[in-house]
Amino acid sequence: MVTCSPFKRVSSLVTQLRNGAILGSTEASLKVLNEIKDASRECTLKEFRKYLQEAVPSFIEGRPTSILMRNLVRKYLEQILRAGKEGGFRSVVEKTPETVDSIVKEVEEVKKAVVEVGSRRLSDGATLMIHSYSSTVIRLVMKAFEEGKKFKVFVTESRPIGEGRITASVLGRAGLDVTLIVDSAVRYVMKRVTDVLFSADAVAANGAVINKVGTSVVALAAKEARVRTYVVAGTYKFGLETVFGELVEGMVLNDASLIMHPEQATELAGKVLVRAPLFDVTPPEYIDAIITEVGVVAPQAIPLVIKEKYGWPPKVARVNDLLKEVVGIE
Amino acid sequence: MVTCSPFKRVSSLVTQLRNGAILGSTEASLKVLNEIKDASRECTLKEFRKYLQEAVPSFIEGRPTSILMRNLVRKYLEQILRAGKEGGFRSVVEKTPETVDSIVKEVEEVKKAVVEVGSRRLSDGATLMIHSYSSTVIRLVMKAFEEGKKFKVFVTESRPIGEGRITASVLGRAGLDVTLIVDSAVRYVMKRVTDVLFSADAVAANGAVINKVGTSVVALAAKEARVRTYVVAGTYKFGLETVFGELVEGMVLNDASLIMHPEQATELAGKVLVRAPLFDVTPPEYIDAIITEVGVVAPQAIPLVIKEKYGWPPKVARVNDLLKEVVGIE
Amino acid sequence: MVTCSPFKRVSSLVTQLRNGAILGSTEASLKVLNEIKDASRECTLKEFRKYLQEAVPSFIEGRPTSILMRNLVRKYLEQILRAGKEGGFRSVVEKTPETVDSIVKEVEEVKKAVVEVGSRRLSDGATLMIHSYSSTVIRLVMKAFEEGKKFKVFVTESRPIGEGRITASVLGRAGLDVTLIVDSAVRYVMKRVTDVLFSADAVAANGAVINKVGTSVVALAAKEARVRTYVVAGTYKFGLETVFGELVEGMVLNDASLIMHPEQATELAGKVLVRAPLFDVTPPEYIDAIITEVGVVAPQAIPLVIKEKYGWPPKVARVNDLLKEVVGIE
Amino acid sequence: MVTCSPFKRVSSLVTQLRNGAILGSTEASLKVLNEIKDASRECTLKEFRKYLQEAVPSFIEGRPTSILMRNLVRKYLEQILRAGKEGGFRSVVEKTPETVDSIVKEVEEVKKAVVEVGSRRLSDGATLMIHSYSSTVIRLVMKAFEEGKKFKVFVTESRPIGEGRITASVLGRAGLDVTLIVDSAVRYVMKRVTDVLFSADAVAANGAVINKVGTSVVALAAKEARVRTYVVAGTYKFGLETVFGELVEGMVLNDASLIMHPEQATELAGKVLVRAPLFDVTPPEYIDAIITEVGVVAPQAIPLVIKEKYGWPPKVARVNDLLKEVVGIE
Amino acid sequence: MVTCSPFKRVSSLVTQLRNGAILGSTEASLKVLNEIKDASRECTLKEFRKYLQEAVPSFIEGRPTSILMRNLVRKYLEQILRAGKEGGFRSVVEKTPETVDSIVKEVEEVKKAVVEVGSRRLSDGATLMIHSYSSTVIRLVMKAFEEGKKFKVFVTESRPIGEGRITASVLGRAGLDVTLIVDSAVRYVMKRVTDVLFSADAVAANGAVINKVGTSVVALAAKEARVRTYVVAGTYKFGLETVFGELVEGMVLNDASLIMHPEQATELAGKVLVRAPLFDVTPPEYIDAIITEVGVVAPQAIPLVIKEKYGWPPKVARVNDLLKEVVGIE
Amino acid sequence: MVTCSPFKRVSSLVTQLRNGAILGSTEASLKVLNEIKDASRECTLKEFRKYLQEAVPSFIEGRPTSILMRNLVRKYLEQILRAGKEGGFRSVVEKTPETVDSIVKEVEEVKKAVVEVGSRRLSDGATLMIHSYSSTVIRLVMKAFEEGKKFKVFVTESRPIGEGRITASVLGRAGLDVTLIVDSAVRYVMKRVTDVLFSADAVAANGAVINKVGTSVVALAAKEARVRTYVVAGTYKFGLETVFGELVEGMVLNDASLIMHPEQATELAGKVLVRAPLFDVTPPEYIDAIITEVGVVAPQAIPLVIKEKYGWPPKVARVNDLLKEVVGIE
Hints:
In chain A, about 50% of the residues lie in helices and about 15% in strands. Chain A is an alpha/beta fold and about 325 residues long. The longest helix of chain A has about 55 residues, at about 65-120.
């Protein structure tokens, strides 16, 4: 029987992933990595093997749109596999903490570089629109603000979860001129906006961007009004599998209580279906540029950036295959 | 001192108008007319004079986008003015109930005709999207449904008030195949939609439509995907003053508690501004046709329809001038 | 038993209507009127009553898109009904020839006026594209040509029937510089075109145009390349019923032999479905102007033109009701 | 031999019309009317007959795009013809001054009404762009400014004549916040603009607008950036003949010295062709509304406005026919 | 005198290439390679030298749009040149069969990889539109179908040759739900389509795609309706010369009998010109992604893919220069 | 005290750069390089150090949009720094002439290659539009013309400086069919144009192009009319810093005398602001391809081309840092 506490936390973490309770795809991915690290420390060798076998796939299925999580877990598995091949499964366990730490550190550095590049892009006096929540976007805007640029910022509520409220309160508390609007007011205020900023859960090989639902609506309204649109996304969010034709899976919540009062939801069960897709796809032609740690490029130039990091076509081991190999180590 | 109860209800009704608590512009307008009728019965002659002088302008200012209310009040005042010129202010009071009743009846007939015309327009098997709430749109869809046409219906939540929930529950209870979505998911589902339906608070002389905020976003996403868009609006909603250059005033709620939890709203007061515009303007090129009681026409053909009812340029007495005249009757 | 020859020709005429064998909606409509005239002369009184009762509805159902036919038959019935009310059914029979003749004459005059107005619109040196076949469009181009204007004309084949070949041969024989192209080459040549011309089977109240399939493709490609697009359509083609929300019914041929060799069609029966819609709908925003006998107007201004002829909303008796009345005359 | 001085001024006035030296189509038209008035006073009866015969057609040919001039001259001729039919040609001469005066007065009233309607349309705080010069547009902006509305105004230089400099200096002297830009900078500043204003030389029956060259470029850039575009044009500028298919003739100056230094022009004669079209055509879909004295309407609703003044189809006598009749009076 | 049979087949093969009788650009290219192989076996050494000198250029001129053929022939020549430099012309002859075989095999492998990548891209339940005929597209769809995905497929007739009939019958016989439509019905059915698929004769360096005429029309209609559009093209179809500014030559058939009945064609000869362009150019902005054997990329990312195979700028020997070298070998 | 004449020329050269007096960004950049060369010869060692320290930054600030100048100066500094590290500052001085010469030569070769590639792209019989002045564009067109291709060329005046007059006179004198138009006439003539050509001051990493003001207007009008648009720009004009988020700075002249007569300018000083931006930004979606010395690519593929020359992300030393290093050499 499995008794280590990381294992017990698995199902609740999966639920959080599924219903979008962890804001931001970076936070969710690092959370998962750190859970693996904790498991390597707190669980027995046998438990950890089982953890890798069961918990990791369920995390990935819990947020299928998060290419970042998939890419980071893949990176962890590739590195740990090498360790395991040399030192056996014990080595897998022992090397996990430092491996996770080095990946976390790398993610932080990538993020810092993205923030650096992106903050240069914002002009003093700009009027920004930020859709939903992203710690990278917030840091990027904060950096430019701290360097003395002044902005007016519109933030969308971002239903059903409403994480735009967090974005607004963080920036508002820091002293920026922030206005929170309902999602359907994006076109109403768009004429005054100069730059739209959002993050990505995944960027496909042809430049399409998967992000919080409503992103494609904001981008469409921005295009209509000649407003520049930037996607802020480190290269860890680029969907390597999409190079080979795979589609990024979407996520839809059908939980009526997200939109309705619980009583109403109960009463209308079976009569009104509630659909809250968490993500949508924004076509590349509605995006002016993607801000990565290695430069600002048109979305159509994504393959070049993938190539620089992974070769072209990129070598992509499947996470499940890697897992099987790692777990199979004696 | 004024003691009749209609007078006491004025400020609470104005508040309801201001914050959109009365769903649908027809309901709000008829509510106001019936309040005037009640006042003519329950108040003294002197009180009623004061009621006309004070309550009526405050109703109109309470919902400035509602061209319907303005047009119906104007109609009431024009008719009652004639009565008053003959029989004095007593006659104004005495004729008010039947005048209101005849206008209410006419509105009902117009609505019935609009529903009739519009329900023919829907094809069996269509997938509809309805934004926000409108009793006329609901009746129109119900009529076609009762005549045997089958539909799939997407309804938007319509933040901040969320009146789409009412639309969804009415249609869902009646047995239609209804899905409620968040506002930012309109583009996500749009590819599957065949017809978009919404009402109007006002239709301007150049064919622009003022309606619940988000309408222009839905119409834009529909245009992008080649989906037909119909505005359902009896001619009483046509803005006669816009013929002469006046702009329909917008309404914006700045009540943070509409989007935030009260505590958060309190804490962030002065740091985050909350803007919830209640209405936006949809340009005529995003609308395929306006469904009126006298036919289905392109939005640009609105002047013809105005002309048939009011001449061209239409004779439009200002509500305030009419009020002064009526109130001035001995 | 019915023995008069017009009656015997009914089913073959209906077939011709159904499969588009009669080119041009004007030709088809006049053919039907003249058949009614022949029937009034060659059939007995009892047979003619039956003819009206059975043949006329089947003609209209044979080409449901032809608003012209419906409008002309309605006109005939309205006039003959008046005659019948005075002089009984005998009078219906006797007055039919002259009634038909006067309508035919009026159609000719309308056509002449349309040709007059439209031919002024063409500039010397223009490069025209004509989709499908229309006797009015041909006469319009010929008139301008005879007045000394030079054109280059591209004509589409217009599959599946290929009536563009007729258009090309008529104009080519007359000495114009004509090039026949396959339908899918419209975008290939569009950059060189200055004006697109086509006719209409019906014009809806909101300015949408129903015409030979492919019209909307040509109009889309013209819009993309900033080429002017004119619809040539006398007001008899305006769909009065569409004012009241009715949709113009489409026509689709599922006859595989239209596209395949008969043998192949037989072999693939049940394996490959063949769909040859005869008509499509062009939205008003792809049409620069409609050329009518009372002027050149934007498609959105159609209601005005309807109003000038029929009032607004137009008084429209249903053809079936009129038929019943006429047939019921003693 | 003709010796009266109005006759001597004809050729120089025609030249001024031809090269656009008289700014604004209203000024040019009233100038012509007043010249006719002067001729009726200063010339002999015989000379005036000749004046009508020769000068008037040359004025109209001098500025063929000016529908206003054509419409006003037509109006003058229609009225004077009635006088002449009663009182002979002497009466034509005698009635000319008061007829001209009444038309001039009417034009002034129309202009005043247009200014009234249009000034209501401008919102306080708007950023306007004005292309070229128009006395009506200037008055409209001035009226709104004098009523307390504040604007920022961009004015285009409007090459080759550069009349935007006049517009800028009039508004700048009056105290508005005015910036003069080169024509090719319209897109550069457009994102900041909220409303574009321009006048018209002619408005065609399908809503297309003929105005100073570059207007269609400004309107295109405005459309691209979701900026509202208003045409300011009294109904006297509506092209009645265009209802019947006639095209408004364009005007092109080929005078190299307009763009080049005279020496360069001489040197490059025969090597470089200089084309300075004075007018271009803006399609109705790039115009939000036309501001007339009888209301603000979509360009597609022009036929309705024409109808209200002239019937539909409008009765339009040809200016040349009217002239012949008037001149033929004994 | 040349007597080997491959030489005798040259002119008939060139004719087939010229009039599009060999369906699909891959089939045509492999056919040519195999003919060269046959010639190396069946002709004398002297004859083969002449074959290379005369037949090969005429094949390439026979289908100038086929970049594939040019690229494959170039590859063959480059390899055989190396052999010839070592072993003389005898070696050229002897090595030709295995060189051709290895290229054919490589093409097959590329095709298989493209099919693999592309079949992953199709979602179960999709409604596809396929324009014209391509063996790769057919295999791609078949593979996805065989793996259990269900589709509805619309296939265009693809005039003048009508090769869509082949596509439809292959897929229909295999059990897919196939509907064959005329080319001009693409917009009529487009609203129901989710994915458009077509092949390419050539892909230019800036992402423009040369394919069977009508492709650009289908892509335009797809763009208008927000339908995804995929080009299926192995990298052998990328136009290396276009990197250096060369334009891909088009092909136009002027054979009237393609569209007209032979008799009619004869009669109208000199009166009606018939133009049947075989190919058109689809701009990159109408294409969502290109499916290659090395990944799914935006059309604008083509240079990257070229670079991976050929370096950047790619080293491209001219086919004619290579030929001269090979033929010149002793 | 500094007495060498290159130093004395600095401020006048900076002024010329600032007001656009040196036509073409290549000319301006080479002029600056040659001035440095002259300074290395004519100034003392001490003076030259000061020249590098003061003159070079002021040149770059004088034309901040010119990425070419920045890139060439960077190249010079990188090479000279190496020399200086070996041989001290004396070596910097001595090696400057040959370093400059080799860079100038390389620029010439790049230009030649661009002209070569681009001239292949033009089809015989094309109608070109050239905006403003560029020696490379002129040579490209001349080369194609000399090889026997015939063109019709429209050239824009290009206010405020009017350098289009130079373009027109050079091409006109060479015998091409040239028409000079005012900037606002671009849409008027665009329907007849097949290819638009312009140069660039800078190309950003996401494909946006900075060029003479009005370029984006021409490109927009070209897009609207389906006209191909080519940017002619060697890779030396690619903005390496933009990869890292930096924005290319714009240049605006506020000199009223550019647009107004000096007197008028004086009189209206303080009343009318004159803004003459010299450059604007054209978004990549309005550009069909960029013609570089290493191939014709979509603007979105710019990063690939940058990578081939500088690696990705490119190593970019800041000009100021390099300067400091060079100047600091003993």
